[in-house]
Amino acid sequence: MRIAIPLVQGRLSMHFGHCEQFAIVTVDDESKEIIKREDMAPPAHEPGALPRWLHELSVNVILAGGMGQRAQQLFAQNGIEVVVGAPDNNPEELVTQYITGKLQCGDNICDH
Which residues span the domain enclosing 1? Predict the structure, then answer.
């Protein structure tokens, strides 16, 4: 499993489209352990670019603070599950909470 987390200053960016980097975290499905983390600069922010790029990187899930409905639809079309309302935290902690079913998500902070 590969999980993408938009980052600003090493922590979850509350709006994925304005992030500095994405942490791409690879998780072993069997052991539920983090195998690897890669921080990558995203392509220019334009409609459809991020979902295509993350799909090409074999990402299965994106954890975000907020994301517009159209972006969520584009991710779904690319086979990527979207989790919104994730708290401001570091990528490893967010992934660990997600894979153990303990991630506490709030409201989608994006209204467009």
Answer: 1-41
